[in-house]
């Protein structure tokens, strides 16, 4: 291999030696190549100590440099040097204009970074370091510039030409059949927020008046065949804009806000100033083609990107180590928005499930890193659950410690003080400290220490003194580069349940109290407690920790039925199920017949009978912990035992409670026209869950019921719910028939067909790998489209444990081959595919050896991208 990529460190940060006051760009888009002309007004940064530094511009190796001039003087090749990603110009004055002409080939860009083609259109993705694939620039977030962009292209094929800001001029070059539009963005921004779109696009439009009375045009663009799938995104956008005005006092600032849907996209969406670019999967929605979960995802992602206009764009990151400054805060903002729009408790359950399943696993693996990483080789590898979801939990903890009023004051101060600046997570915390008068210095460790803290809680009760004590001990396991951890500042929200299940009054008469843990060991004493209470610990999941408290099954059942904290009621049920599933796993491993503890059956029966509960919450409570969560909890993952125990429990519950499942299934039948509103979503989620239990009975009558639901459904949630149950059932012929029918119905709906791929990839029956292999040659598959790769390959490797981890290692070989192939085409997607292999330490010895050799084979396969190299080398 060539020279190995080097890590860069937060501690080496230096202010940029040069600034770019204005950036003028002109793009001439053409089939063979695209010309990019740039005019940059530059000067030395007065804040930089290095007064003589040469100008060091970023520019990807793929850029063809055609012309370079400084203040009108054309440079000859002796005046500059290109090396790797750098263009070094030795002698430059203190103030100058840099002109640059670059040739690029977007049609060959399969990495989907910089300017590339998605189907028939041009689009861009510049975060984090994609702008350097467009032209030579200071491609770092602390260099903010005012952009003016002209896009010129063939008028017939690319009638719509978009960039950031407001359109200010347009015209045509009639004899050539070309036209152009100029856009101006008055807000200084880093290059990562630059965007350009050119294509034959349709759009919907809506006027919006901001709280202070400014008129804004909202537009969502897509290919014309998808025009009927944009209304939900538009409604979500309007709701998000109103919410941000009300909850954070933040208004939109340009005359136009645009969203464009593209089919080839590495992630969900991108918050480019005034011109968001979205993966079609995060913007298109219609009842016939989109599930309830996807409707909610669209609402959440549209809001997330909109919220970035303040938390990310107006106030941006100083460097990429600060990524969670914008991502953690914005995820917290979008989670609160979704909680306000839908069910708060359900949203919390979903977020915590993701955190505990996937982020905790990341924290325990070789890529573990702090919310603010100290170093990286490739920044694209750090758009992680830790930076996003754990980062959001860190912001949530500040919210919990300060309370909503002070938190709002803190965010006001942060936005006002830093508007137009590129800042750090420290600046964010400082604003919160200043408004509250609190010292958050120990709290800052959450940004710098990786790993999931563990809390061990024990208690004692002194009946004579009527005193109840909670003893809490915290620790945090070692992570790569961090052996020793200092104690965290942890908000631990608790309640005490008295006999009968009622909350006891705590400090100030409240029923929930936030204890603040700052020491390794601490005891909290409650006086005047007449009887031994049952503690409800970590209410609302007040901190991202693993909590252990010796709780009996009876106590869990008691909390499940009485806890006033909806989240903890659900959590008690999960803990009970985990406990019982582990018992089944032990029985399975010992070769004994498995026997399900009646406690779970009785608890589920009580929940099913309680018609007063929100059906969405009932569905969550009755959902057994996933195989992935059970794996995360295991010291050594026993793939078969987890799968068998869970299947057994599901069937046993179905047998014991079939009457109840059937009764609720029938009572929840759809009434009225489909709407993705909270009430209907709740009903469908519980009804489909009931069907999944009934299908576990493996009876022809239930199969017929599922097939009828599939045939009669007027919406994708019910149709797809039935489809996947039939497809994964033991009724092979019926499974094939329904998959065939589904394909024919939705052949032309790319996103629906992606779900069709995913359902087959996640089928736990033997033979799934052969099917996935065959589907890679299907006309519906395209390895260059990340959505397809995720639907087929990622789903197989992450959501089909029994097949992916087959003892012969065939799953690992399959994945290694795909990564080697993707490494050349799309390093970001290739690197993400690696995740399941990085967890090799958690498996038995034979699997460990097979997974390691798959990783080694990737490492030895030739020239690796920085993305793949970093993850493989850190994992081995
Ligand atoms: N900020 C983008 C993520 C960009 C990822 C680049 N590899 C989307 C978001 O978090 O809103
Ligand atoms: Zn974001």
Automatic annotation (TrEMBL):
Cited SUPFAM superfamilies: Leukotriene A4 hydrolase N-terminal domain, Metalloproteases ('zincins'), catalytic domain
InterPro entries, alphabetized: Aminopeptidase_N-like_N, Aminopeptidase_N-like_N_sf, PepN_Ig-like_sf, Peptidase_M1, Peptidase_M1_dom, Peptidase_M1_pepN, Peptidase_M1_pepN_C, Peptidase_M1_pepN_C_sf
Keyword Zinc: yes
First-level EC class: hydrolase
Any single Pfam family the record assigns to this protein: DUF3458_C
Record-annotated Peptidase M1 alanyl aminopeptidase Ig-like fold domain positions: 451-549
Enzyme Commission number, as recorded: 3.4.11.2
Presence of the UniProt keyword RNA-binding in the record: no
Cofactor entry: Zn(2+)
Residue span(s) of domain Peptidase M1 alanyl aminopeptidase C-terminal: 554-876
Reactions this protein catalyses: Release of an N-terminal amino acid, Xaa-|-Yaa- from a peptide, amide or arylamide. Xaa is preferably Ala, but may be most amino acids including Pro (slow action). When a terminal hydrophobic residue is followed by a prolyl residue, the two may be released as an intact Xaa-Pro dipeptide
Domain Aminopeptidase N-like N-terminal residue range list: 104-193
GO MF annotation: an example: alanyl aminopeptidase activity
Keywords (A to Z) from UniProt: Aminopeptidase, Hydrolase, Metal-binding, Metalloprotease, Protease, Zinc
Residue intervals passing through the bilayer: none
PANTHER family tied to this protein: PUROMYCIN-SENSITIVE AMINOPEPTIDASE
Recorded family membership: Belongs to the peptidase M1 family.
Designated name of the protein: Aminopeptidase N
Native source species: Marinobacterium aestuariivivens
